[in-house]
Design goal:
The protein has 102 residues and is α+β, with helices and mostly antiparallel strands. It is built from 3 helices and 4 strands.
Length: 102
């Protein structure tokens, strides 16, 4: 199972409340449309600190890297990527393999 973390920095002109509303009400529903997505988690910081390097983390699970690439090459994947580009000051993606410890 491939786990993809996206670390997202909010745009400076968005308040934390506006950013949170965008993440949960508009962007997360787009993510749910990705083909091959097995699990999806979204977290947004609790405290408003514009100096944080990131303000949200998404965790997306796919069967493998090919499924991930296919998802983001789809219409839904391109739309989600364009949506982040319009609402975020930056994003970092980490492709990982999760190992359960406890």
């Amino acid at each position: 199972m491939l786990k993809v973390f996206s670390l997202i920095k909010r745009r400076e002109d968005l308040s934390l409340d506006e950013f949170r509303e965008w993440v949960f009400e508009r962007h997360a529903p787009m993510g749910k449309e990705l083909p091959g997505l097995r699990e999806y988690h979204v977290s947004v910081v609790e405290q408003d600190d514009p100096d944080l390097p990131y303000h949200a983390v998404t965790e997306l699970y796919f069967d493998d890297e090919d499924a991930f690439k296919e998802a983001f090459a789809s219409d839904a994947g391109r739309a989600a990527g364009d949506d982040v580009a319009r609402h975020a000051a930056g994003r970092v993606r980490l492709l990982t393999r999760e190992e359960r410890v406890i």
